[in-house]
Specification:
Elements lengths: L10 E2 L6 E3 L6 E2 L8 E2 L14 E6 L12 E5 L15 E5 L5 E5 L19 E2 L6 E2 L17 E2 L1 E3 L4 E6 L6 E8 L2 E9 L5 E7 L9 E3 L14 E2 L4 E7 L6 E10 L1
Parallel strand pairs: 3-5
Antiparallel strand pairs: 1-20, 2-14, 4-20, 5-13, 6-7, 6-20, 7-8, 8-11, 9-10, 12-13, 14-15, 15-19, 16-17, 16-18, 16-20
């Protein structure tokens, strides 16, 4: 069967040539119930400008808070505490201003690195829990705070309807795919760079016409190992995963898990 690849975004499950996903992650953020993770997937409709950046896609309608002005949600790409994180990323704060104006901010307080909470409309600020530094909805620091500079902002774009795209530096990755033969049958080898603490999954879609994120696919970390894992935690190194090829056609992607924090 002829190899297929769509705009360098999807990874064909057939063939022996090595393919590269030249565009970058990521993620559709869905609202969740009882703390269930949001799932990020590779997509083609939002492309990063910075080399190595990734795109976090947020469907505004999935978040009750973002339907109204002064609404605020915080998205975590890896574990953190109030005092910060030793992992790759601080949570991303998404605030809605007037009309269709959105702000995406790094929650790292510019005073001493504590994690800034969501915007509080009553206080008129995000108030740092460590030393009470105050930041406006757009991330600018309020005079009199312990912090002397504003929160870092991320580039955003909004389609005017529902899709908010947030560009995050160093979140992007390139995935290569190779068909291999193991003792248990044909497999697809996926390789990509990871970031410390970020959790990754492999998804499969039967065709590009499938509009969903795709089905989670178990993987092995050795060519002959059992494909029983479903989540890989990044360690800032290149990951090599192996998935069983159960279909003659289809498309794989590597996804990031995003949680409420």
């Amino acid at each position: 069967m002829k190899n297929r690849q769509d705009s360098n975004i999807e990874c064909a499950s057939t063939g022996t040539r090595r393919h590269f996903l030249k565009n970058f992650v990521v993620g559709t953020a869905f609202s969740s119930v009882m703390g269930r993770a949001w799932l990020g997937t590779l997509v083609a409709d939002c492309q990063p400008i910075q080399q190595g950046a990734g795109i976090l896609r947020v469907n505004v309608s999935g978040f009750q808070a973002l339907k109204n002005e002064n609404g605020s949600v915080r998205l975590a790409l890896n574990a953190f505490t109030q005092n910060g994180t030793s992992n790759a990323f601080y949570p991303v704060l998404v605030n809605r201003g007037v009309n269709n104006q959105f702000f995406a901010l790094d929650t790292r307080c510019t005073h001493q690195g504590c994690v800034v909470p969501p915007f509080n409309p009553t206080a008129g600020a995000s108030v740092c829990p460590c030393h009470s530094s105050r930041f406006r909805i757009d991330g600018t620091v309020i005079p009199g705070s312990a912090a002397l500079s504003s929160l870092q902002s991320f580039p955003v774009s909004f389609d005017g309807l529902d899709l908010l795209c947030i560009e995050i530096a160093n979140l992007g990755y390139t995935v290569s795919e190779t068909s291999v033969q193991s003792g248990s049958g044909p497999r697809v080898q996926l390789q990509f760079s990871t970031r410390t603490g970020v959790k990754y999954q492999v998804l499969f879609r039967q065709s590009l016409a499938d509009t969903g994120a795709g089905a989670v696919v178990p993987f092995a970390t050795t060519i002959g190992g059992a494909a029983t894992s479903t989540v890989l935690t990044g360690n800032n190194a290149v990951a090599t995963l192996f998935v069983d090829r159960t279909s003659d056609a289809g498309f794989y992607s590597v996804a990031v898990l995003v949680n409420a924090g």
